[in-house]
Amino acid sequence: MWIFLLFTFVLTLKGTLAEVDCHAEDLSECVRPKLFSYVPSELSEFNALCPQLPAFMRCLKEYQDSCEGMKYFRSQDEYNEIYGAFRDVCEEGTLFNTGKISWSRVALQLK
Predict the structure, then answer these.
(1) What percent of the chain has pLDDT over 90?
(2) What domain of life (predicted)?
(3) DSSP state of 28
């Protein structure tokens, strides 16, 4: 009988410790990229800050996946598209990153 009670206690404790705490404060672990606050004037500064963007996106996605009811992305496709856009902008050597294609040109083509 004691073994059964001990086993039940251990399973309960393990389940409690393994749960993700899904409060808004926990979302603060996803560090907001500095690029959301200002636009760097130098490409080197932009490239130094850029890795924060995909990391932030991955953190939001992990938080959403582990916390039921949290929705930042409507679908996996939406996440992939946004993540891909950040990757294209941030990956050194891409047309967006080097400035050979500007967002204003893309916006005009989409109209």
Answers:
(1) 2
(2) Eukaryota
(3) T
Q: Where are the alpha helices (DSSP H) in 1-111?
A: 2-18, 24-27, 43-49, 52-66, 76-90, 95-98, 103-110
Cβ–Cβ < 8 Å for 32, 56: yes
What's the rounded mean pLDDT across residues 4-29? 52
CA–CA distance, 35 with 40 (Å, rounded to integer): 8
What does R_g of the chain's alpha carbons equal in angstroms?
21
Cα torsion through 17, 20, 26, 30, rounded to 10: 120
Tokens of 24: 């808004």
Distance CA 101, CA 109 (A): 12
pTM over 0.85: no
